[in-house]
Automatic annotation (TrEMBL):
InterPro entries registered for this protein in UniProt: K_chnl_dom, VG_K_chnl
Taxonomic path: Eukaryota, Sar, Rhizaria, Endomyxa, Phytomyxea
Membrane topology qualifier: Multi-pass membrane protein
Recorded superkingdom: Eukaryota
GO CC annotations on file: voltage-gated potassium channel complex
GO MF: voltage-gated potassium channel activity
Transmembrane helix found in the keyword field: yes
Pfam family, one: Ion_trans_2
GO biological process, alphabetically ordered: action potential
Biological source species: Spongospora subterranea
UniProt main location, coarse: membrane
Protein name per Swiss-Prot or TrEMBL: Potassium channel domain-containing protein
Length: 152
């Protein structure tokens, strides 16, 4: 039984081996206790890493699903308000200018959404506390869109 425990614990044997029954029991119990003492901290550390990974994955899913739609809604509403104001000021101009302007609004909208997603992905390289603070600041800043302006 002693050789089985020593082999399974990967302690092996060397120049000094216990000869008596009590020595073998002590060596086997010490080997098992050593394995258990290492297993507890390793499981705690791996559990902490798993928790951090799950939080990061949850934030990534949030950014990929909800925030992209949120950014598009904000940019669409702001650009639409600006576009309508521009049209009211320049109604006497030709219609081809309106077509050009609507294309420019479309391009600006795509660039705004892309820049926003790039900024959010850059936030993922920060620590978890910094990410939560920056996401909260972003929502406080951008959820107050009124009449094409933001309150800061």
């Amino acid at each position: 039984m002693y050789w089985c425990i020593i082999t399974l614990c990967t302690v092996g044997y060397g120049d000094l081996v216990p000869v008596t029954f009590l020595g073998k029991v002590l060596a086997a119990s010490t080997s098992i206790a050593g394995i258990l003492l290492l297993a507890v901290p390793i499981s705690i550390v791996s559990g902490s890493f798993q928790t951090l990974y799950e939080r990061r994955r949850g934030l990534t899913e949030f950014v990929n699903t909800y925030v992209s739609h949120f950014a598009m809604d904000i940019s669409i509403s702001g650009i639409t308000i600006m576009f309508n104001r521009y049209k009211k000021r320049h109604q006497h101009r030709e219609s081809k200018n309106d077509d050009r302007l609507s294309w420019a609004v479309h391009v600006v909208h795509e660039m705004t959404a892309f820049n926003y997603m790039h900024a959010m992905n850059a936030q993922l390289t920060l620590g978890d506390r910094e990410i939560e603070e920056n996401v909260n600041k972003f929502f406080i800043k951008w959820t107050t869109v009124e009449d094409g302006r933001t309150r800061r």
